[in-house]
Amino acid sequence: MPPPLFVRLAALIACLLVTSGCLGPARPAVDRSTLTGKVMVGYQGWFNAEGDGAGRGYTHWARGAAFPDAKTIRVDLWPDLSEHGPDERFPTGLFHADGTRAEVFSSYRRETVVRHFKWMEEHGIDGVFVQRFINTLSRPDALAHNNTVLAHCREGARKHGRAYALMYDLSSLPPGAADRLIEDWKTLLRDTRLTRDRAYLKHRGKPVLALWGCGFNDDKPRPSLEDWQKIITFLKTDPAAGGVAVMLGVPSFWREQRRDARTDPELHALLQQADILSPWTPGRYRTPEQAARHGETVWQPDLEWCRARGIDYLPVAFPGFSWHNMNPAAPFDAIPRLQGRFFWSQIAAAKKAGASMLYVAMFDEVDEATAIFKATNAPPTSDGVQFITYEGLPSDHYLWLTGQAGKVMRGEVPATDEPPARHEAATADNAKEATASAASP
Q1: Which of 169, 309, 326, 403 sits a CA distance of 20 to 30 A from 367?
Q2: CATH pick for 32-434 out of 3.40.50.2300, 3.40.50.920, 1.10.260.40, 3.20.20.80
Q3: Residue 51 CB neighbours (<10 A)
Q4: pTM of the prediction?
């Protein structure tokens, strides 16, 4: 037997390691076997910067992937890079009020993406839908970037106990091109064994695969309903690559087939083959009052329609919206955040409508200022360029609110009309932890 001193020292070292976070996640890993009770966030992962190794310039930061400055910048929210290392920061031609040069990050960098999952773990966010833009994958640089970001997300999810699933964005995929998605999915499964990953999200015993963009009424080239039928049939029945739970991202008014939804008698027949429907809402309402009304008049009857057909329903919430730098004719801060009230009104509306799961758009979308990740209240001020802020709230406030949304969906806290006060919620959480600790043997 080891001497008592050795035992005491070993115990002390183990305790210190656990306290410092060196052994395992600070929170238990989420249950990856179901979408029920989850709040998932969309992860774009589409940012590049010159010098990141991808050779794609400043993709998504600036028009034409050019060097970001007052004339080229195309985002409306500025990230907080205070935790990023020197090799994760990339210069721009913009400057903060104190004269320091503004910097951006790249999704191509492993450390940056894995840190994002650390933030999710710290704030109790269940996981992500990793976006995969099917219309870009024919370009070798875009394919390499998508695959690299997916690999980073897989590592982050495993390391920090989160769930992830793939979401194909079929925007701008022309009619007749369904085989592009089918072949890409087959290649992914062959090369990465994606759905066998322990962190990959399952639902009702099947791996979840999301397909976004079905049934929209707009001027973009989109797959025909015949293409959608071919894809769904393949994903449901193919012996090697099928057997997935199909989630369809659809227009807000898919059930009534009005406004953003196409009118077609075959649309409902197609949607009834899905396992999960998720209606897109950014821009469909602009105030907390409108969001509450949307929950009552749209989400609630949607849920009833889905329940009658054995389909799960995943409403979408977003924290605000602004895309003035991308579209100068558009108003700045078009849908104000109202210090979290607008976001929280949707969380409460979804729960009151009967939802048991929620999709938050998005984790890292600074282009349209819908991001929930850490953003700064002191963005660049060069040449009159405008950026929205978190209105003085802590940079992680929307991460925290999203974690609170998960508690609402699981019935752990009530769906109040006003957002919870952060210090009060922290006190309640500490009390619960103390009670659970006291009750444990």
Answers
A1: 403
A2: 3.20.20.80
A3: 13
A4: 0.91
